[in-house]
Fold this protein.
Amino acid sequence: MTELVQKEILLNGTQAVAYAAMYADVDVTAAYPIRPYTEVMDTISKLIADGQLDAEFIVAEGEHGQFEIVKHASLTGARTLVGTSGVGWLYGMEAIVVTATDRAPVVAVIGNRALDDPGAYGVEHNDALMVRDVGWLLVWVDTAQEAFDTALIAYRVGEDSRVLMPVGVSMDGGFLTHSEQIVRLPPRELVKDFLPAYNRGKYLVHPDNPISVAPQVNEDWVSEIRRQHDEGMERARTVISEAYESFKKVFGRYPGTTRDIKMFENPFVEPYMTDDAEVILVGMGTVSKPIKVAINKMREQGIKVGMLRIRWFRPFPTQEVMKYLSGAKVVCVVDRDYSLGSPFRGGVVYHEVRSSLYDLDERPKILSFIGGLGGREITVQDAEKVIKIGLEARDTPITRHTYWINVRGDPW
Amino acid sequence: MAHGEDVKYVEITYRGIFQKRLAKYIAEGLVYMAREMGRSAVSFGRYGDSPERNGVPAKYYVALGSLNEEELIGYSTRVEPETVDVIVVLDDTLLKGVESWAWQGVQPINLKLKEGGAMIVTSTRNLEELVKVTPAKEFRWDMGRINVEKSFSGLWAFKDDMTMERVWGAIAKMRPDIVDLEHVRTYVKEHKKDRVNERLSAVEEAYETLVVKSMAPKEGAEFKYSPPRLLTWQEMMEGAAVPAVPRGGRNEQFKRGTTKTERPTVDFDTCIKCKLCWVYCPDECFDETKDGYYDIAYDYCVGCGICADVCPVKNCIVMVNEGRFKDYRRPYEMWKEDKVAYKSWLKQVREGGVKERVVVPGLGR
Ligand code: SF4
Ligand code: SF4
């Protein structure tokens, strides 16, 4: 089926990725239900049933099987889509980790969800962050449009012969997985120009190319395998930049937007009014929405505040974080996750940002804000309060490193 | 001043699973004894896959020295020490070479032995016979033999047949600087209270009857070994991928033949060419010959005995103790060369070399 005109359609975040997978013409999907990712597979099964997509739809017996299916399919040259949420992601972890080690460029939707117990379905980023150290590329999106565009980019980047790595497209459970927004779909014909066929080259598992992947190797090999992987992760930076450039050229707009806006031009991060900002908030995913509104309000009062939204968490945008945050007096990192027992009792992103800034001659003060765990809202008022605390810290010595936003029992 | 050179090492080479506990207990005893003698000592298994695999050569170590224990541990936190003072070989078929870690190739059993070092083998074969298959060294060293059957005192069941006590007695004889007889006795008395007299006589007997031969430089079998050059990360395929061995070929880098304590012998005169051995061999050791027989690549045979089990012709494939063979020559070649000589050779190696095999480990046979 070919569409030659751009069209607009109401989709939620998960549906948007399913549509992207259709446009990318995936060959194999493996499904196992868990909220809030489930609608990806609902949508894709419908697209297959309606004849819009010709792909294998395999229902697995659980997440471990689900990820093994796509890993193997991917090694044989199939373009794959998979996904899960929360503890499902963790249940598949053995297969998920080796998917990266075996360099299978699977694309997975991670509908972020709290890690049970107590059986919460709401967003928390700790699920996806479990793979931050094992060779998955990780990207967070904050709109359905960005989910669609980023999924296409994910195939392009992961399948690049310089990379060959799985990509986790993370989105906030509920706030994005279940919110419908208007998505502009590009002409389907053009997708082919942006997304070349998946070609594993000499890494294709095929009778005509006799290789084996991950036979039992001796422990002595592991250092070299990690070291190689590390180079691939580093090359991914270049490939990501190229992919965003190419996206702009082919579709005539910047990924994640309906227009080409100069301000959004960094693939790795989205700086929002950071140029002269004294206080900069940092976050991933939909938390950017209330934060931006709060910033707009504060700016009206002449307060110099901005935001840096992190898109790509792996590879981590170290240079960008240094560049955009070096002028700030205070950096407030709002984590929708927590790292129990970590230095200064902070969030995961907080630590990565803090570490990135360590080499600066003049380091901004850095505060950690933990909020919205398990799907709790972070409101515009909360964001305003974060800014206020940041402003106070600008003028007074730091007495506290971490603030829990709206947790019952703590002052807020 | 304390230096790494002050550390002495005992290496215990054993067969994975079958002898793991035996090796560990021998090492454990040596640690206690050395400490009683006023030295610090620790033991460590050479970690890897092998200790938990049936019959695969594996190693255990004891480090001892005058350093304090922290320093000793500092020097000994290794996969393997570079050189060793004493090697204990718990199965004489290991003398033919061991391939035990990280595909470093089939190594001579005494690769790491220091000049003047001691190697102790448990074997019922006489020393002259053992010397013929033992790799030569450039320098002088000593080889001792404890006259016992190899002991399968393994991972799942420990058959306490006093091999430990014999090994300790032998070390005391050859290397009293490691442990002396008095301290072996004291240790056994204090730590092994059941059947203590029997144990003490095992120590004494090994001490008294140990046959020792001083090995001259270059004495023994020729053994060519150079460690394979392992690939760098730039050379390896990415993503834990490896090129497959071409059809009909074999991986030169991965010969597992050192795993076997027995090898299959074939009587080609009675073979009915049914192909079952070829089908069943889990290591694909059989090669079909032009005239329909099945030749064996012994380098790759792990001695599992499945071919002997499935061969429908009585006494066509028979498992024979590995110690009876000097080389890895292919049997078909030998048979083709001279059928009469082959038949008499077959008769000779099978005589006395065929034993009831250990099929289920852990039965304490
Ligand atoms: S004993 Fe027989 S079946 Fe087993 S590996 Fe050797 S040749 Fe193959
Ligand atoms: S199983 Fe025995 S009889 Fe059959 S081909 Fe092999 S050696 Fe010959």
Remarks:
- Chain A has two domains: 7-251, 268-404.
